[in-house]
Amino acid sequence: MRKRKWKRIAITAGSVLVLGTVVPAFHIWWVMRPRVDATTRIMARIDIRQQIDPAGAERITAWLYRQKGVEHVLVNPKVGIAVFTYSPLQNNANVITQQFRQELAYSGAARVMPSETEMAMGCPVAATSFAYKAYKFMTHIF
Questions:
Q1: What is the rounded distance in angstroms from the CA atom of residue 76 to the CA atom of residue 61?
Q2: For residue 44, what is the enclosing H or E element?
Q3: Position 142 in a domain
Q4: What is the pLDDT of residue 124?
Q5: CA distance 76 to 105
Q6: How many angstroms separate the CA atoms of 123 and 119, rounded?
Q7: Pairing between β-strand 110-112 and β-strand 81-86 as defined by DSSP bridges
Q8: Domain membership flag for residue 137
Q9: Residue 43 DSSP code
Q10: Most exposed of 29, 63, 88, 93 (fewest Cβ within 10 Å)?
Q11: Which residues pair with 133 in a beta bridge?
């Protein structure tokens, strides 16, 4: 009788311990996981290191609009820059840039990615806000 009681207590305590660990861990993961919803749009930039005439700019614009997930395109032929927004659920800017180089024969085209310093300077309020500091603290810990 005494052995059964201790066995039941041990099983109950073990179950409570496992549930007390697994449930909060799952909840934290569920709440903190990165999410991309259907309305998320990302802006990307391609620098074209070749001369572009107005007809070439129109061809680039039309080609980018034909890519899956691309919604808005701006091409500046004077400086050789193409900027577009796209859905990350439907496409990837690196893939678009690679296909752009291959299909349109702009071998010098490259996707421009801002550095960490440039990203930090993107929003002057974010670096000084409490939420940003808490975010940085949490990402440093984990």
A1: 10
A2: strand 42-47
A3: no
A4: 55
A5: 18
A6: 8
A7: unpaired
A8: no
A9: E
A10: 29
A11: none
Angle at which helix 54-66 crosses helix 93-104, to 10 degrees, equals 130
CA 59, CA 104: separation in Å to the nearest integer?
9
Q: What is the CATH number of the domain that holds 58?
A: 3.30.70.100
Cα–Cα distance, 9 to 15 (Å, whole number): 10
Is residue 50 domain-resident? Answer: yes
Pick from 101, 41, 49: which is nearest to 73 by CA? Answer: 41
Residues 52 and 29 in one domain: no
Q: Residue 8: which domain range?
A: 1-33
SS3 16: helix
Please state, in angstroms and rounded to a whole number, the distance separating the CA atoms of residues 71 and 48: 20
Residues 50 and 79 in one domain: yes
Joined together, the tokens standing for residue 103 give 């299909």
Do 25 and 50 lie in a common domain?
no
Q: What is the pTM of this model?
A: 0.61
What percentage of the chain carries pLDDT values higher than 70?
A: 89
| CA 83/CA 65 separation, integer angstroms | 11
- Residues 28, 55, single domain; the answer is no
Indicate the average pLDDT of the chain.
85
The residue-averaged pLDDT of 99-113 equals 90
